């Protein structure tokens, strides 16, 4: 099999196998074919990964930030040089079109490594003056062994987003990819070693949720950074709390996108397409509740339906294809269930809604109109190509409705009125807000959720705070005066 790795796990600089672990079948979503067989980690593998990471972390942290940065930068260069090959793996693992994976996966991962490579040498504490010449200073210390747990939509990008700041700060990382998309993280582990990172600095261990849970519960893990659903986030957060571990939680969303009647309609439709159908809708920050002001609703829907006819659905390895299958049969069935619910609860199916008559897990881009706030499709995260269009009259009304969600990952507004744009952005209860655009995710800017969508921030300088702890050291230049 072309995509079969030498073994399931990568620990201490080498591929490792324990065939006693439960089989993980890796399936190409465009055909349903099995492209690799791996094994979920056994307790022996989990132990190996932990002890290797624990000892590698000391060696890694002893390097200067500049040295660590140089290695991360070298890893970024290798990722870029291998971008196409890595994109082919990512397309076979996720089903996402090669048109997407060549620009948004390994290359975005390389950007993360470059960015944090630049910051690695700048991690410093501060000097705090105290009376009579005394002073304190602070040291930014790494946390130790960090655990990264990934979702299946952007596997190598998620692995890099977590590894780059963790490693820049002198931590080691054990990464557990989603068992649905386990392949590319192994390549990343090879690349770190090739770039000069000590063996064990970045270990990859495959497994189902129970493997992630075993790591979270282990006392040698100092921090857990998870990208996944709220359901999993709750379990992981609770288990991490038991050991008082640091956490970053990047969870789900049901984000609003508001289109006012003064908006540039072409841009708003483009934003709605990007924010609902890129990666077949499998993006956490998608703006899946599209609130359109009543006066422009029919024009918006007409334009949107016409544009969706231009979706080129097919073989994701064809560079012209811009809409691929869902990641798995299971995910497709979940999304079909939501489409069914939308119809049953009285939303109007404007277009799509059907599975394509071809092998693989293909669903049409689907748009519902006349959606009301109470409907299931307007409340729950679907994580598939399903857009809900809701009408509104006034700014005051739509802000209240947009914020009436347990999630708070992202939000967007389309309007030509600058004052309104800022006013609305300030009122959104969300971690990331977009004005006249949607779904940009730059490594330089913080990303993360409010409410149930998460804890902490990834990307940007803020991520460094989540991978270090501060130590304060008091220094006295004076005699010690005790009361007796
Ligand atoms: P899941 O929550 O099902 O799984 C996420 C990861 O956690 C997987 O690797 C999973 O392993 C693992 N896991 C499951 N149970 C446990 C447990 N008890 N302890 C430790 N680890 C566990 O999410 P999906 O993979 O289905 O991804 C989709 C979700 O991710 C959506 O909700 C989406 O919004 C969110 N997401 C958030 C992003 C963000 O940045 N905010 C970005 C991308 C996605 P296994 O797969 O083997 O069960």
From TrEMBL:
Keyword S-adenosyl-L-methionine tagged: no
Domain Aldehyde dehydrogenase: 16-473
EC number(s) on file: 1.2.1.8
Top EC class for this record: oxidoreductase
Active site, UniProt feature: 250
Tree of life domain: Bacteria
Listed InterPro entries: Ald_DH/histidinol_DH, Ald_DH_C, Ald_DH_CS_CYS, Ald_DH_CS_GLU, Ald_DH_N, Aldehyde_DH_dom, BADH
Pfam family, one: Aldedh
MF GO annotations: betaine-aldehyde dehydrogenase (NAD+) activity
Assigned keywords, A-Z: Metal-binding, NAD, Oxidation, Oxidoreductase, Potassium
UniProt similarity note: Belongs to the aldehyde dehydrogenase family.
Protein's UniProt name: Betaine-aldehyde dehydrogenase
Source species: Mesorhizobium australafricanum
